[in-house]
Amino acid sequence: MRHTPRYLMTDPDEVKRLIRANAWATFVSPATTGLVASHYPAILDEDAEGIVIVSHFGRPDEVAHELGRHEILVIVQGPHDYVSPSWYAPGEVIPTWNHVTAHLYGTPEFLSDDENYEMLAKLTDHFERHRPGGRSLADDEAGTRRVAKGTVGLRIRVDRFDARAKLSQNKAPDVAANVIAHLDERNPGLADEMRRVHPGGPTA
Predict the structure, then answer these.
(1) What is the rounded CA–CA span in Å between residue 19 and residue 151?
(2) Engineering a disulfide at 175: which of 11, 112, 113, 171 sits with its beta carbon 3.0 to 4.6 angstroms away?
(3) Residues 29-55: pLDDT tens digits?
(4) Domains of the chain: which residue ranges?
(5) 51 and 16 in contact (C-beta within 8 Å)?
(6) What DSSP state is assigned to residue 59?
(7) Has this prediction a pTM greater than 0.90?
């Protein structure tokens, strides 16, 4: 990503917060056949030190990615949206795009079948626990274990990351407040991210 110091996210805890809130990730591998990309949910291993994510690939995606043979890139994208110059002072005409994004780098380790099933159960619970009538893999363990054999579980210890929170830090407080007010109507998640770096701005 473009190196702009004012937008850098260097706090691992902030990157963890981004991952927790945005589980849909893009996995990119430099395979011998060329670049390969896939999209899967990823969650944090909350018991591990540092930033460690766990996920799964549907077979035979792990072969196409040549997982375990090289470092891969995992992209986590948070709230993002177009910012119109009409939200700035009269005469300004250059638009931009605000976003929160993290690039995570590490070499995947394969999970055992039991570890994979445990991870899939946690992943399901992550999304089902707050839903009325939420389901669990334990509701049909024999059946879900058979389905799980079509997936490959993986753990990635993030060796390094490159993250940005581009949230109008280059704008005056009154301009940023106006951007937040507009985003409250169309993208409240991004507006909330902006409030984190512009305290004292308008509340929803």
Answers:
(1) 22
(2) 171
(3) 999 999 999 999 999 999 999 999 999
(4) 5-169
(5) yes
(6) T
(7) yes
